[in-house]
Amino acid sequence: xxxxxxxxxxxxxxxxxxxxxxxxxxxxxxxxxxxxxxxxxxxxxxxxxxxxxxxxxxxxxxxxxxxxxxxxxxxxxxxxxxxxxxxxxxxxxxxxxxxxxxxxxxxxxxxxxxxxxxxxxxxxxxxxxxxxxxxxxxxxxxxxxxxxxxxxxxxxxxxxxxxxxxxxxxxxxxxxxxxxxxxxxxxxxxxxxxxxxxxxxxxxxxxxxxxxxxxxxxxxxxxxxxxxxxxxxxxxxxxxxxxxxxxxxxxxxxx
Length: 255
Ligand code: 13P
Prior knowledge:
Layout: E1 5-9, H1 16-30, E2 37-41, H2 44-53, E3 60-63, H3 80-83, E4 89-92, H4 95-100, H5 105-117, E5 121-126, H6 130-134, H7 138-149, E6 162-165, H8 179-197, H9 199-204, E7 206-210, H10 215-222, E8 229-232, H11 239-253
Parallel strand pairs: 1-2, 1-8, 2-3, 3-4, 4-5, 5-6, 6-7, 7-8
The structure holds 1,3-dihydroxyacetonephosphate.
């Protein structure tokens, strides 16, 4: 049985003080829902302080990206060694990084390897554009992104990887994919994993949906058999909304 995982991707929101105040308020609200893995992904600058507030809780911390080198002349970048001890998870391949920060399938793969080598768990984001979606290319494109991200990754590492399907056209737009459509694409991602690693491994990997997830549509996703959680942007920035998402996940999927 796959434990559901809900991660809040804060993107470039919240100052240091706001981040600390937020998790202080959030932590007790999320405490009862231990059947769901709960993760927050603040900005780099708030990681240490948020990790400190959450250190005696079950709420995990994730970074929003990383560089693949351990150190070096890479102005503005954060290395895996810098994240160790602060974060357990790291989002890799988010479409905003692919669109604005030159993230490619190749850098995604390097980052996945670097994260794993340092004991960080990648949340690998994949997803098609509106044009690709309308051209009927979703399955082929997404499957290609999955294969490229996992190139050279062995089956035993898959227990430390979470996949996230985030159709670009659904991110921050309020135009979410229906639960049924999201489940169909996620089942294709699982089929790609089965092709790479066999059915047992594929069945054990958690795959999230992301894109305009809100309390009002969460049950639609969580009731789908292949969707194991959500990667949430906007709704993760409000204590009440994020708590509600976790509550719904616990009700639909919790053991
Ligand atoms: P929204 O939930 O704001 O659409 O963002 C989704 C996302 O990009 C999470 O990584």
